[in-house]
Design goal:
It is globular, with a radius of gyration of 22 Å. By secondary structure, the protein is an alpha+beta fold. It folds into two domains: 126 residues; 90 residues, 3-Layer(aba) Sandwich (Glutaredoxin). A four-stranded mixed beta sheet has the order 2-1-3-4, sandwiched between helices. α1 runs parallel beside α3.
């Protein structure tokens, strides 16, 4: 009986040690991911400042609209890829809320890039790009809504990949962004997910792919 007791204690201690080691390894892995995404975000912020400088130069006729448009496209595509990677990390990250905080920062950045895209089209009316803004719920708990959001994500990615002139801007509408709320208020959207194409057409239910493509340039 005494021997069984010591075997139990040994097994318990081994379990505790394995748990502690796994816990700290998990924190270390997530910390590495966090540092990587933070670095990407800092680079994107720097690129954004560069684009703002280009905006001023376009107004002063120092650079062409095409240069500004291409820089904006490159940054939006870069941010899209970074945010996709962040989403993958979030799905596997269970230990801290740091990745979620970074997600909110990216939502604010993408909102500003959407605003900048609108301003570019006003400043350069002959531009040849379209924006598809995908508003979804990041902390969605309803399984039916989550399935709907997965369908939307795949459909919009297909459209983006099939047209180099399409800029896909996914933004979590529950990010508590004042600028996003102000920007979307005029559309009177009452349910999510929702898609806004070139500030003109709003979709709140999933259509055929061709129906969305009718509204892009």
């Amino acid at each position: 009986m005494k021997r069984n007791y010591f075997v139990f204690i040994q097994a318990f201690l081994i379990t505790v040690v394995v748990f502690i080691v796994g816990f700290y390894v998990g924190i270390s892995v997530e910390g590495g991911r966090l540092n990587q995404i933070n670095s990407y975000y800092t680079q994107s912020e720097t690129s954004l400042v560069d684009i703002l400088a280009l905006n001023s130069m376009v107004k002063a006729k120092s650079v062409s609209c095409s240069e500004l448009v291409e820089s904006n496209k490159d940054l939006l595509n870069k941010v899209y890829e970074e945010a996709t990677l962040l989403g993958q990390y979030e799905e596997s990250g269970k230990l801290t809320n740091n990745l979620k905080d970074l997600h909110t920062k990216y939502d604010v950045l993408r909102t500003y890039l959407w605003i900048n895209s609108i301003n570019i089209r006003k400043e350069c009316p002959k531009t040849n790009f379209s924006t598809i803004v995908y508003l979804y719920t990041h902390d969605e708990q309803d399984l039916t809504k989550r399935a709907e959001q997965n369908v939307w994500s795949k459909l919009l990615l297909e459209i983006k990949n099939g047209n180099s002139g399409v800029l896909l801007i996914p933004i979590a509408q529950d990010s508590n962004s004042t600028s996003l709320d102000a920007l979307t208020r005029k559309y009177n959207i009452t349910s999510y997910p929702a898609v806004i194409v070139d500030q003109n057409k709003v979709f709140t239910s999933i259509p055929e792919r061709s129906e969305i493509e009718k509204y892009v340039q």
